Amino acid sequence: MKVTMPTVKEVYNSLWRRETKPSDWAQRSLLAIRGMDKQIGAFLTVEEDQVMANARRLDDAKSNHRMFGVPFALKDNICTAGQKTTAASRILENYIPPYSATVYQRLLDQSAVLMGKTNLDEFAMGSSTENSAYQKTRNPYNLERVPGGSSGGSAAAVAAGMVPFALGSDTGGSIRQPAAYCGVVGLKPTYGRVSRYGLIAFASSLDQIGPFTRNVEDAAFVLQAISGHDPMDSTSAPMDVDDYVTHIGDSIKGLRVGVVTDAATDGLHPGVQEAVDKAVQVLAQAGAEVVEVSLPHSVYAVATYYLVAPAEASSNLARYDGVRYGRRAAGESLLEMYERTRSEGFGLEVKRRIMIGTYALSSGYYDAYYLRAQQMRTLIRRDYDEAFERCDVIVTPTAPTPAFRFGENSDPLEMYLNDLYTIPANLAGLPGISVPCGLVDGLPVGMQLVGKAFDEKTLLQVAHAYEKLRGFEMPQPEVTL
Amino acid sequence: MNITEDVVKNVAKLARLAVSEEDAQKLAPELSEIISYAQQLQEVDLTDVPPTSHSLSLVNVMRPDIPSAGLTREEALKNAPDSDGAEIRVPAVLDV
């Protein structure tokens, strides 16, 4: 019989009523992983004995929190003290962090149970998880298709029902796009809402950690558990955290939903457009007012992103030099050691982005590329400021197509263009959520809602109203042995 | 924008990456394509537009200067590829 995990809420309710124990759920999650992950490849590491020991330690405790005893997975670029963290790169293949990321520590403090670390594109650079140095992750809805990326392992693990929730990171769409491809909910919080301490840095002004869940309410539970100021991350916002849960079911009557009139439609699958149009109708039926908004500079978002993100990455990844931690290749001189270490340790996409970033920042090109990209970032942000004077959330597709086949987007630029709807929110630092809005050719597609800065509350409320009224349940993918 | 194999090799050197001839041949057209795509930013008049480096307007975030325990020497050396137990060892930096 196929074993899968229910939602966070169901696990929590059962534990709260003392019908089950944390070790029962850890055991069940391990069975689900054992049963399905040979096909899916979502996990890079699962330390079964450690998982069961951690869960059993909670068995005699009393449920005191929504996360109590709930199994979860972490993208393998989130540091776990004492447990290997690789960022799916050869350069960190044996790296055991001496400290834990704040998000992980918070979940531990609230007695959640870590099942394992999930696969990703190396250093979170990619949109298909094909850039992992270790393994392929397959889309649970169709094993010939990618799960999206870069948090493909976390998305696939939740979609297949191996864990009730997982965390990922989103720099240009790396939570929302795989959530759309795998038929789950994926939330990128406002930049600064969730601590980045212990997240292996890709592009520090864009990176943000967020949850993958089976439904919107679960996303609110997890966001509540991980949000808030952290003295260890000076870019985390010193602001109070809203209550995301209590009023999530409130009516959206009178809220204004913005539809973008000048969004780029290059490569947009007509089926995706149709599904999103239908979703907007559902929101209108729920009482939301649909208004037209304009984001004239969002057509430049991909170009802007592919200068800003690689520039920051080239600086962030300079630390991998084979000296203090990570892989080292032998060299006669220090310079030769650096070059060999980095050449052997990094995959091609990582090298490509380090080189674009180095080029864009180099003397003579800085003003033409990096500075212009930062100026464009200002215009993209201003577009949103104006749009949000007229609406509360903005709706677009999450990705232009459903999940593609392995190897289908082998040209780097084609792959980058896949992120055109998700990137603008990162550049502006705004929260975004992807909610499943139907199937196209048997594959899930997502609607993206982008909200005002630090207004995850309204974002979740609108997403929840849609989910409740959309009139269908996402079918569970069939993963068989 | 044409990025030649020589430019690729020079940029690789700046980034402390050793690229093979084969890699340079592959990377040159790819990087050219990406940088050419970014050329579209030149179309827009950006005079007097201030740059955004960060979406939060936090400046000089300070915390109280209270000493706390850091990593022990043992913990700090645990992931080092080569150490003598007290310090990290690297190839000679100076010619003697």
What's the rounded overall pLDDT mean of chain B? 91
DSSP strand tally of chain A: 11
| CATH superfamily (homologous) name of the largest domain in chain A | Amidase signature (AS) domain
**Total domains of chain A, how many?**
2
Element-level helix/strand string of chain B: HHH
Helix content of chain B: 25-40%
Strand content of chain B: under 5%
Task: Enumerate the strands of the largest sheet of chain A in spatial order, edge to edge or round the barrel.
Answer: 1-3-2-4-6-5-10-11-9-7-8
Low-confidence stretches of chain A: none
Question: Can you offer a commentary on this structure?
Answer:
The complex is a heterodimer of chains A (481) and B (96). By secondary structure, chain A is an alpha/beta fold. Chain A has 2 domains: 8-262 and 268-295 and 382-469, Amidase signature (AS) enzymes (Alpha-Beta Complex), CATH 3.90.1300; 298-379, no CATH class. Helix content of chain A is 37%, strand content 13%. In chain A, α2 (22-40) packs antiparallel against α3 (48-56), α5 runs parallel beside α6 (176-182) and α9 packs across α11 (348-361). Chain B has helices at residues 5-14, 21-38, 73-77. In chain B, 16% of the residues are buried. Chain B has 96 residues and is mainly alpha-helical. Chain B has a domain at 5-43. Chains A and B meet through α9, α10, α11, α12 and α13 of A and α1 and α2 of B.
Features:
heterodimer; A: Amidase signature (AS) enzymes; eleven-stranded mixed β-sheet; 15 helices; 11 strands; B: 96 residues; mainly alpha; 3 helices
Compact summary:
The complex is a heterodimer of chains A (481) and B (96). Chain A has 481 residues and is an alpha/beta fold.
How do the helices and strands line up, and which of them pair or pack?
The complex is a heterodimer of chains A (481) and B (96).
Chain A: H1 8-16, H2 22-40, E1 43-45, H3 48-56, E2 71-75, H4 102-109, E3 113-118, H5 152-159, E4 165-170, H6 176-182, E5 185-188, E6 208-213, H7 216-226, E7 256-260, H8 270-285, E8 289-293, H9 301-316, H10 334-345, H11 348-361, H12 367-390, E9 393-397, H13 412-417, H14 423-428, E10 432-440, E11 443-451, H15 456-469
Parallel strand pairs in A: 2-3, 2-4, 7-8, 7-9
Antiparallel strand pairs in A: 1-3, 4-6, 5-6, 5-10, 9-11, 10-11
Helix pairs in contact in A: 2-3, 5-6, 7-15, 9-11, 9-12
Chain B: H1 5-14, H2 21-38, H3 73-77
Helix pairs in contact in B: 1-2
Protein name (chain B): Aspartyl/glutamyl-tRNA(Asn/Gln) amidotransferase subunit C
Subunit structure (chain B): Heterotrimer of A, B and C subunits.
GO molecular function, one term (chain B): transferase activity
